[in-house]
Amino acid sequence: MNKAIFEVLEKLEKQSSLEKSRQVNVSSDERMLAITKETGELLNMLIRLKNAKNMLEVGMSVGYSTIWCAEAIIENNGKIITIEQNAKKIQRAKENFQNANVSEHIAIQEGLAMQILQELSLNEDYKVFFDFVLIDADKENVIEYFDMILPMVSVGGVIVTDNMLYPEKYRESMKEYSSHIQAIQNVRTITSPIGNGEEITIKLR
């Protein structure tokens, strides 16, 4: 990992730790709500194993997960399309991407995830296009997100969904999500205890 990416990730990890321990006061709409470092390492490894080039991220926040993914994607000269609604977080993410020297590999789509995914799904260019997807947005609509995204995923493509186990307040919703995926014939899925719990789903055909 090059120095610029390492330093930005380290800085964001410290910020996330301070926020979670309440050592800094941050308004609810500005909290990072980031994946764990272990999840970042998992995503990075999966992208490398898959040799992914085209990635979709739903829920960018300040870009911590995006940078972990970009570190692997850039070796394939790939691109990440990432979705985020919060303008303040988008500005912070842009600064983080610039400091990590990964900006040219990331395209930010600002707005509601549901609306942007609907637009992408209607674009023939994105049919079976994405090799790798990270879903880390609001849990109320996670099943709808998955259903819209699946036709845009290439055969053999991977979808990772965060917060399957923690925080506990999401657990029932995420159980429903996992059950929904398990009923789909052309995917294989498993829940991993890494980080906050990751659903790892592969599209078979």
TrEMBL record:
Keywords from the UniProt entry: Methyltransferase, S-adenosyl-L-methionine, Transferase
GO biological process: methylation
InterPro entries: Cation-dep_OMT (IPR050362), SAM-dependent_MTases_sf (IPR029063), SAM_O-MeTrfase (IPR002935)
GO molecular function annotation: O-methyltransferase activity; S-adenosylmethionine-dependent methyltransferase activity
Protein name: O-methyltransferase family 3
